[in-house]
Records
---
Amino acid sequence: MGTWGRAAKWLQTPGKSDMKLGEISKDYRILIVPGIMNTCVADTPAYDKGRKALTDKYGLTTELLSVPNDSSEANAKAIASFIQEKMKDDKRKFIVVGYSKGTPDLQVALAQEAGVKENVAAFISTAGASGGSPVADSLPMQLDAYLSKVKQGKCQGNLAEGFKSLKKDVRQRFLSSYPHPMVPTYSLAAVTTAESVPKTAAQTFKMLSAWDKYNDSQLLKLDQIIPESKYLGVVNSDHLNVALSMGSTFPRAALLEATVRFVIDDLSKSGVIKPAETTKTEPKKKSWADGFGN
């Protein structure tokens, strides 16, 4: 997975660096739902190395559901069907991770589809489009020419419908209808700078900076934070490279492991699951997650 050096450089507020990491509880499974156009870059799946590390090193069951470029409502049904099918053979609940449009797809699934929230223990949003994006609002002016080129590729679904689900007014209406998270929810935002944004994303970064300089070139920082969620902090990355290997050196595997560890630890402290057993005479130690992202 490469040598990343100190991960602190990728966090706006670094956490502790002297915590000893143990095993990760296998009481849950991990399901990642990626963003729009993920089928167009199927050879670059979201958190690919991170998922493999969680499985190979810690024995966790990890899944990637590659949803098509359809509306969040259509993808929510696909998510529900996937989860219901998986629950037939394994009763462990999922910790779901939504990246980019995967976040609103999961929000709709949790809010509207039967059997989803009952089988999800927690929801992690990384650079998630919970509040929509001004980029999606600007697309109709240039979408037809763009789609005519993309449709010739290997993309699945209806990109026009997918982008409509990312419009700010659409996402804000959803949040007004469902203002409270359905399960324990955690938000991790991404922010880049004019100096570090990739050239291919410089134009959208500049456009979004007219609203707020704190953006990842696709989403404003505030639109990445789900209302009433636990805020995990900000990573220094553009939107694509936070989850996809697109040329930028970024510790995606470490990020995924850290967020999964934090959430499982937080669930155990909340009484959702029992912490992993330790020596009976050993006093309870302060959790490694304390102080992360504060």
---
Amino acid sequence: MLNRRHFIGTLLSSSGLVFAGGMAVQGAHAAPQPVFAVPPAIRAAFLPTGKLRASINLGNPILAQAGPDGHPVGVSVDLAQAFATLLGAELELVVVQAAGKSVEGVLAERADIGFFAVDPLRGEGIAFSAPYIDIEGFYLVRNDSPITSNAQVDVLQNRVVVGKGSAYDLFLTRTLQRATLLRSATSPTVVATFLRDGAEVAAGVKQQLQADAAKHRGLRLLDQRFMVIEQAMGVPKSRGQDAADFLAAFVERMKASGFVAQALQRHHIQGTTVAAPAGAAS
């Protein structure tokens, strides 16, 4: 087994992983020079095709979205490019429109890494790092709805719309006892489905719901979040514990160096926080 502390220490001391102004992650995805000698076994675990295939979910605009030229941009893209740089590999983006599709792609090993909300069900086949950002989940209702608090959502007559396979879907499937879940094809279409079907509640990322509420009159968010989504990087468990430890060390480096915070600022992402270091008390 590889020494995880050794890799964390090496990554933390590798100044080459600090990308000034994000310039190292903005250009073409050509193979860069690695910042230190990555063990061949680690490169083999992440690069079975010779490239780093990263699953990028455009269904969560906090993580990634299509840029002006149509190519994905965002925090997850920046992290994927930084990890490819560390491995000395060319980056190949595997673009999907929903979290569930991203999970499927990594589990089927059509991608080598992905960016996911941490969830026990997903964790059966995917080894997660500690989270790199925390995202808040909120409920949205119509202005004339009698619902004013989260405690009023889980009643028999309420239908709650979620993005199929999203973190909210998985969480609410486990926790709601009386309300009925309706599943929209993707997270960005949740409010459209909510309006079309006349549902009582929509659930999703706070920023996405706020944007939709600004576009459609007569909608409001409830005052309190119903969950915090921990967004992490993940690798198929079939790639081995050494690969999982290496990816976890990389994520800790990206948080500690300020890279994640800078990426959030660079992509104008508000209302999202950099996650605490792994093992820190909550």
---
Amino acid sequence: MTMSAGVEWGVHVCLLLAQANGGLVRRRAIADHFGLPEAYLAKQLTKLVAAGVLDAVPGPAGGYRLASDPKRITLLNIVEAIEGTRSSFVCTEIRRQGTGAADPSECVADCTVKSAMLAADNAWRQALRAQTVNDLSSRLSDSVRRRYASTARR
């Protein structure tokens, strides 16, 4: 499975905003900090706001901040805000097609492929759900934390 660059951007933005301690950080400051095109960053920020991960305050003194405590924002919240909630596996029921099509009576339960893939998807989601912005923040090096905090004060 491949996630878009927006997921990486979203997680880093949340880590930066966690260092702002509830203060507002301008979109331009975030874009400059990470060397990202502001227009593309805006699209990811809009998704994070719509999902309730971030708050956006308009106006000249406005900016972005985490919508809740970093201990409550999970990596899954961020991934689903950017990528959506759809499973990474889509079963098309090919076992029912072609010259080797299964008898309908054999297709009452999910096939083994679908079951295995959904179990893997659930495990992946659980691993993301188990890690919060606060968890990742606590593992940042002091120098990264200082750089994030410096940008957050701009």
